[in-house]
Every structure is written in structure tokens, then in C-alpha cells.
Amino acid sequence: MIRKANKSEIRIIYELSKKTKTNMLESGLNQWVGDYPKYDSFYKDYLKSGLYIYLMDDQIIASITILEENDPPYQEIKWEMNDSLVIHRLLVDPDYQKHRIGQAMFEKAIELTKHDYLSLKVDTHPDNHKMQGLILKMGFQYKGYIESINRLAYELIV
């Protein structure tokens, strides 16, 4: 089940992000380095009503942020649409990866986008081949390289 996160669940999401980050680093992916993502990142996502979780047996095993915003680095890209939602911080518990949970989270983002927006945007690290595969599988089109944050940018017209 996917639903909006509650304030009391932010700490659990943050701890899950640390587990996911450790897994990424151990596999050689340096996408989330330093102290990113911070607890405050998830708290701000919650305050903007953009923090969602995937529950299995009452346990949080994934989260995604879906916000109505274009970060300043996104201005480097020529997008098809401006009226868009943006995916941030998708994370899936490493113990549950390869079970289509990331795909379900993307499907939720697409469903939300179809209500009032024209496109859905996402970016990922050039070395995150798992995420790139998921993004392309979900029908997104590559839009370019965001040099200031070392990310590949994608957009899905809904």
C-alpha cells in the first residue's frame, strides 16, 4: 500500500535512507554522499505534503518524494512542459529491491501527475544504472545532463 507519510514516520524513513545509502555506497554508487539525505530533507518533504511511503505488513519499505517544483538546477534543461511534478529521493529497502516496489512508486507519481499536471520529471546520477533502467521502463524520455548537480534528467508527458 502506498500513502502519504505521517510526521511520526519521518524518523523511520530517515533510518531507511541511511540503510539504502550504505547499500549504494557498498555497491560503488556515490550518488548520495556526505550527510545527504538529511532528516530535514524528509521533514520538509512532509511539510509540503509530498512524502509518500510503501507499506508491507505495516512496515515502511520504501519512500518517494513527489513535489510541485523545479529546483534551480532544472533550469539548465529544456523541458517539454513547465506544469510538472518532480520525483525526489526514491528509496527502497535493499532487502526488498527487485520486487517492483520502485515501479509501484513511479506508478503512484504518474497517477498523481495525471490529475493536474502535464509532465513528471526525475533526475538520477549517471552511475545509477538501476534507476536509469526503471526510468526508461516507465516511459520517460532523456532530456539532458544537469551539469551543476551531475545528474541525468528525464521527463514523462502524461
The level of helicity is 25-40%
Number of helices: 4
The end-to-end distance, rounded to whole angstroms, is: 23 Å
Approximate strand percentage: 25-35%
Which CATH architecture is right?
Answer: 3-Layer(aba) Sandwich
The number of distinct β-strands equals 7
CATH homology superfamily: Gcn5-related N-acetyltransferase (GNAT)
Oligomeric state of this protein: single chain
**Rg, alpha carbons:** 15 Å
CATH topology: Aminopeptidase
Taken in chain order, the helices and strands follow as EHHEEEHEHEE
* Outline: globular
Spatial order of strands in the largest sheet: 1-2-3-4-5-7-6
Q: Characterize the largest beta sheet: strand count, sense, and whether it forms a barrel.
A: 7 strands, mixed
Mean pLDDT, to the nearest integer, reads: 94
Briefly note the structural class of the backbone.
Answer: alpha+beta
CATH class assignment: Alpha Beta
Give the uncertain stretches in residue-range form.
Answer: none
Count of discrete domains = 1
Keywords, separated by commas or semicolons:
158 residues; alpha+beta; Aminopeptidase; seven-stranded mixed beta sheet; globular
Question: In words, what does this structure look like?
Answer:
It is built from four helices and seven strands. It is of the alpha+beta class and 158 residues long. It has helices at 10-26, 39-47, 101-116, 129-137; strands at 2-4, 51-56, 59-67, 84-92, 119-124, 141-146, 151-157. Strand 4 (84-92), helix 3 and strand 5 form a beta-alpha-beta unit. The protein has a single domain (2-157), classed as Aminopeptidase. Helix 1 packs across helix 2.
